């Protein structure tokens, strides 16, 4: 992984992150309209997908967030309600010479739909299990991403969540697993958004 190269950036990022003030997060607005995934401007989306990955990576390096839980040893919690990995598999026709390849076309809309659902899923998980200030910061990163990558969704606060149910062991464990899950998903998202931005699959 290119983690080493990003470490320096992550350190710089830490300064940025620490200098944030607490954002006011508003939750509980209703769903608005349909999402027109085809109109996504990938050029403006990609940097925000990258920021999501970097910011999540950085946040996970703060052991003290999890109060005695070694988050490194925990498994990531993936959203069981989506099929993002298979929906976002790159166009196998490019490897048509390999035997046993499926001959399906990369379905951008389906892939982006899964990504969007994942994003909402982790957004509410982070809000539910982190304290107010951390939750606001992480949610801001997710909302920045949503705003630029899914601009048709005017209001990203779709899922009603009651923030921070208290600083329990169980809550910190869930926070750790959800943050790891989002980081894993953010890696997929970065691959996919770059892939879509390059436009190769449209041939
Ligand atoms: C957490 O676990 C990892 C992997 O087992 C280990 O390398 C690391 O030293 C542990 N960190 C702490 C703070 O115990
Ligand atoms: C995330 O990282 C980017 C740098 O890529 C930074 O500009 C931004 O403030 C960070 N936080 C959020 C909420 O996006």
TrEMBL record:
An annotated Gene Ontology molecular function: cytokine activity
Keyword Secreted recorded: yes
Biological process according to GO: immune response
Signal peptide: 1-28
Region: Disordered, residue numbers: 81-100
Keywords: Cytokine, Disulfide bond, Growth factor, Secreted, Signal
InterPro entries, per the entry: 4_helix_cytokine-like_core, IL-12_alpha
Location(s) in or outside the cell: Secreted
One GO cellular component term: extracellular space
Main localization (coarse): secreted
Subunit structure: Heterodimer with IL12B; disulfide-linked. The heterodimer is known as interleukin IL-12.
Family membership noted in the UniProt record: Belongs to the IL-6 superfamily.
Name this polypeptide is given: Interleukin-12 subunit alpha
Source organism (scientific name): Anguilla anguilla (European freshwater eel)
Gene: IL12A
């Amino acid at each position: 992984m290119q983690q080493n190269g990003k470490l320096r950036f992550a350190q710089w990022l830490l300064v940025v992150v620490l200098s944030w003030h607490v954002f006011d997060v508003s939750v509980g607005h209703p769903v608005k309209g349909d999402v027109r995934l085809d109109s996504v401007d990938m050029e403006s989306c990609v940097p925000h997908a990258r920021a999501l990955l970097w910011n999540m990576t950085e946040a996970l390096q703060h052991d003290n967030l999890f109060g005695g839980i070694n988050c490194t040893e925990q498994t990531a919690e993936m959203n069981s309600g989506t099929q993002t990995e298979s929906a976002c598999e790159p166009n196998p026709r490019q490897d048509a010479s390999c035997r046993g390849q499926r001959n399906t076309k990369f379905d951008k809309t389906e892939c982006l739909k899964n990504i969007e659902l994942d994003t909402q899923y982790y957004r509410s998980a982070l809000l539910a299990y982190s304290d107010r200030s951390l939750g606001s910061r992480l949610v801001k990163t997710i909302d920045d991403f949503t705003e630029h990558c899914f601009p048709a969704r005017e209001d990203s606060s779709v899922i009603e969540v009651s923030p921070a149910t208290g600083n329990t062991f169980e809550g910190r464990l869930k926070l750790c697993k959800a943050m790891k899950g989002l980081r894993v998903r953010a890696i997929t998202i970065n691959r996919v958004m770059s892939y879509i931005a390059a436009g190769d699959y449209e041939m």
